[in-house]
Amino acid sequence: MTDYILKINDFMFKEIEHIQNPNFLEFGVKEGRSTKLFLDLCKKNNGKLISVDVDDYSDIFDDLNWKFINCRDDNFEIIEENIKSKFDVIYLDSLHEADHVEKIFYYYYSKLKINGYFFIDDISWLPYLQNKERDNFYCEINNKETFDRLLEIYNNNQKNIEMYFSFFSSGMCKIIKKKDNLNLPLKVFTREKSLKNLIRRIKFIK
């Protein structure tokens, strides 16, 4: 079993497998690994899945519970035409850049049921650091920026959402919707570079 399958099984599917008559929305299909797991849950619990990808994967599954939309995840007009009800789970695994992740999250948050789940893949930069196993500049920077942006979202929405992280493999974020309202991100300012902390560190060194 690959790290990816282990990650989504342990951090996502064990969390949502109890949902009856689930309504799923998935951004990013690629090899169809997550799609198959969603469809297995649909079969088990009488659910429906909508998958969206800019590449055409419409022929990889033949399932009455599945609808594939061949477009970008920010082609809101086309996707809106296919949304008939709110979702229990939204899974984002498309373009892993902070601005894009924020745009998709804020737009589709209103499409999520209260106590619904929004999962965002690839939030850990640690495997992609220089000289690490997956050494990759693009993934390191984008995953770190995405992680920081998610913290900024939570920083101004602590009463509106719950947020959890897994750092296994390339990481994943789990967001649980508690309220309909959602505030804009707020920068996280710490006292790390304050004079008080500088004094504390000097005393510690001594």
Give an account of the 3D structure.
This protein has 206 residues and is α/β, with parallel strands linked by helices. The protein has a single domain, classed as Rossmann fold (3-Layer(aba) Sandwich). 35% of the residues lie in helices and 21% in strands. It contains six helices and seven strands. It has helices spanning 3-16, 33-45, 76-80, 98-108, 137-155, 195-205, and strands at residues 23-27, 48-53, 66-70, 87-92, 112-121, 161-166, 172-177. A seven-stranded mixed beta sheet has the order 3-2-1-4-5-7-6, with helices on both faces. A hairpin with a 5-residue loop joins strand 6 (161-166) and strand 7. Helix 4 (98-108) packs across helix 5 (137-155). The longest helix is centred in the last third of the chain and has 19 residues, at 137-155. It is globular, with a radius of gyration of 19 Å.
Tally of DSSP β-strands: 7
Shape: globular
CATH superfamily descriptor? Vaccinia Virus protein VP39
- The share of residues in helices is 25-40%
Low-confidence stretches: none
Secondary-structure blueprint of this entry?
Blueprint: H1 3-16, E1 23-27, H2 33-45, E2 48-53, E3 66-70, H3 76-80, E4 87-92, H4 98-108, E5 112-121, H5 137-155, E6 161-166, E7 172-177, H6 195-205
Parallel strand pairs: 1-2, 1-4, 2-3, 4-5
Antiparallel strand pairs: 5-7, 6-7
Helix pairs in contact: 4-5
